[in-house]
Amino acid sequence: MELKVLGLVLAGGKGTRLAPLTAERAKPAVPFGGKYRIIDFVLSNLLNSGIYSIYVLIQFRSQSLLQHLRDGWQFGGMLQSQFIIPVPAQMRTLGETWYKGTADAVFQNANLIEQSRPDVVVLFGADHIYRMDVRQMIAYHREKGAGVTISALPVEKKFAKDFGVIEVDDDGRIVGFHEKKPDAPTIPGRPDMVLASMGNYVFEADLLLDLVDKDAADPASGHDFGTDILPNLIGRVPMYAYDYQTNHIAGDPEDKVPYWRDVGTLDAYYEANMDMRAIDPPLNLYNRQWPLRTAGYSDPPAKFAFDENARRGQAIDSILCGGCIISGSTVRRSVLGRYVRVHSYALVEDCILFDDVEIGRRSKIRRAIIEKNVKIPPDTVIGYDIEEDRKRWQVTESGLVVIKGERSPVPISSISV
């Protein structure tokens, strides 16, 4: 089946629950797994699925995201049909407003769909950690003769308030859609689980244009797919749920359970990072048949220095990126970004350290997220006395210490006058 497919990636979210990590960047630009950004997962999924025509709709605090897209996601320009283009809010509505919701974001960029005339549009979010062969979802969409297909998976009922919850019949057709309702219906026979929308959609292109056009003209609408458009399509348009658990990635074992995480809170973000550094990670970063792409930098390899009693450079059950130097110190169960320095006699356990973090001598750090460019002085203790930590830094309910970073300097060119 030959289809023209256009990818629209919604990457404009504020990510307020991830503050302070989102104080200077949009949620999709938040670092993840050491060298990656959250948006790398959806873009890698689309490219690995053969979808090369992609617009990234951006909005809030977009500079970090724009720089990352420039550094890691620019094609050579040889083929006009292959592109990843960031698109700011174009303010095409009469009020010239920012995006009012996900449907309004598509409406304000309807010209991109009209100009490319695709058969289907894949409309995906940019704030989840997962792998997915989108071709399998598109094939299911066309086999069912659907107008709209929503990827879905079971989650615990206690999380119903955070998702759109779907009801389906025996054929997978959607017969109910409940946006963020704690009392949403559970899966038949599984009273502790609900079928949650992943926020990834496949639309017939003409239908999508018609839907957002009518929605924009409705003054009572909140202009959001989950709240307004999808619930009102029940019984009017063939709408199906695609079971994400049936999706298989090339290079993974046949019995591998698909991994998906919503990293909308600091604790969820931390746990997902810790998943990546596990001995047998649920999401395999080392599958060469389904590469996770990102910006490439000419970093030197990680380095471990000294081999003396009490002063041995070592990292255990951890992920370290290029440029790291572990100098006579110990790192356990942690994720370290680029150019992290951990000085002699220091101990780092169960931590996420962003790029250019420096841990001073004899410091002891555990269960912390430390942002870019933070310099921890020698003999600092973090994560051992939570009440003392609260006086200086942000601490989550689970006792995770989060330390806000500093802006990175930007080198600019100079001239002789």
From TrEMBL:
This is Glucose-1-phosphate adenylyltransferase. It catalyses: alpha-D-glucose 1-phosphate + ATP + H(+) = ADP-alpha-D-glucose + diphosphate. InterPro entries: ADP-Glc_PPase, ADP_Glu_pyroP_CS, GlgC_bac, GlmU/GlgC-like_hexapep, NTP_transferase_dom, Nucleotide-diphossugar_trans, Trimer_LpxA-like_sf. Involved in the biosynthesis of ADP-glucose, a building block required for the elongation reactions to produce glycogen. Catalyzes the reaction between ATP and alpha-D-glucose 1-phosphate (G1P) to produce pyrophosphate and ADP-Glc. Pathway: Glycan biosynthesis; glycogen biosynthesis. Residues 7-277 form the Nucleotidyl transferase domain. The gene is glgC. Belongs to the bacterial/plant glucose-1-phosphate adenylyltransferase family. Residues 300-403 form the Glucose-1-phosphate adenylyltransferase/Bifunctional protein GlmU-like C-terminal hexapeptide domain. Keywords: ATP-binding, Carbohydrate metabolism, Glycogen biosynthesis, Glycogen metabolism, Nucleotide-binding, Nucleotidyltransferase, Transferase. Homotetramer. One of its GO terms (biological process) is glycogen biosynthetic process. Alpha-D-glucose 1-phosphate binds at residues 99, 164, 179-180, 197. It comes from the Bacteria. The record marks 59, 98 as: Could play a key role in the communication between the regulatory and the substrate sites. It is an enzyme of class 2 (transferase). GO terms for molecular function: ATP binding; glucose-1-phosphate adenylyltransferase activity. Its EC number is 2.7.7.27.
